Structures are given as structure tokens and as C-alpha cells.
Amino acid sequence: MTPASSGPATGPRKRGRPARTSVSDGPGARDRILAAARNEFAERGYDKTSIRGIAKAAEVDPALVHHYFGTKEQVFEAAIELIFAPAMAAPDAVHGSREGAGERMARFMFGIWENPVSRLPLLAVMRSALTNETAAAVLRGMIERRVLLRMAGELDVPNPEFRAQLAAGHLIGIAMLRYVIRMEPMASAEVDDIVAMVGPTLQRYLTES
Q1: Using 50, 70 and 90 to split pLDDT, how confident is the model at 146?
Q2: Which sequence spans correspond to the domains of the chain?
Q3: End-to-end C-alpha distance for the chain, whole angstroms
């Protein structure tokens, strides 16, 4: 005679989406995971962030993170797209009259960096890219696709992609000195003074043949 079972039958755990619960799954689960990933990557960097840690912060099963976003690399890409959302409009700053395009771009980008709400996550992502090649590759691909290629499409100059990269590199270099390394006198310089100096150089990259 087979003894009665003392509990529900169990079998091999299947991979994929976990069973739905009112707490961990629902219309807001994906948004909670993305917000948690954004915070985890910003606070811990790429190397120290894990799928399990993101799931814990979002109060969901780790399998649900995989279900919505896939690998850690893919979660990172979705998170930095959210973090870099303000910068995605950089090509729009170039769009329009050629006159003043360099100054418009510089003022637009420094406006993002000067805002603590957008600056702190940006700094965290850049630090991750400096220390982890996977993070660097994801960030590089996203900036190329979402910012530089769009910007190049707005430029009526020879080698527009190269010009767009020169402009971006110029601004990123200044951002590193000012916000990451905090090198003086760059760190305490007035933004208007930086824009006045940088604008003509960006103008040459963006408009001069």
C-alpha cells in the first residue's frame, strides 16, 4: 500500500516565468524591476549588481527579471536607456539653423550634467563603463545607435559620424574632468564660461566643411 502524501506533489522546477502572484507580478512589475535595476546599477555599479539583487529590490522572483529582460547585460541596457533618456534629445539641440549649433549642444548637455537628478546616475553608469568591458560595450552601442547616428543624420558636413563622435568626445572629456575627477579650475568654473569656450569648437565640428 502506498503511503498517503503529506503535502503537494513537487517536480523539477521549470525555468521561465514564475507563477503569478498579486504581489510579485502584475501591470507594475516590469516598471518596478526597471526602476530597481536603475537604482542598483547606479548605486553598486555593473560588477556588484546581480539579477537576484534587482529582484529583491523590486520584490519579485528573479525568474521574472529574466522573463522581462533576459540577461544581466540586457537589464543593464534597459536601465541605462532610462538613465540616458534626457541625453537622447541631444540631436534635437543640433537640429535647426547652423548658426549657434555648437553652443546649443554644449548648453543642452551641461544642463543635464548640472542637474543632480540626472547627473548622479550618469556618473555611476560612466564609472561602470570604465571598469567593466561588458558595461562599456553596452553603453557604447546605445550611445552610437540612439545619439551619434541620429546626430550624424542632422549634419551636412563631410564624415558626419566622425564629427559627431568628436563633439561627443569633447563634451565627455570635459564632463569627466569636471564631475568625476573634479579637477580645478574646471570643477568650479561657471557653466556659461565653459559653454563660451567650448561652443565655437563644437560649431567647427558640427558645421564647417
Answers
A1: confident
A2: 72-207
A3: 91
The CATH code belonging to domain 72-207 is: 1.10.357.10
Residue range 122-146: mean pLDDT, rounded: 85
Q: Letter for the amino acid at 207?
A: T
CA angle 20, 25, 26 (to 5 degrees): 115
pLDDT in tens, 42-97: 888 889 999 999 999 999 999 999 999 999 999 998 888 877 777 777 777 777 77
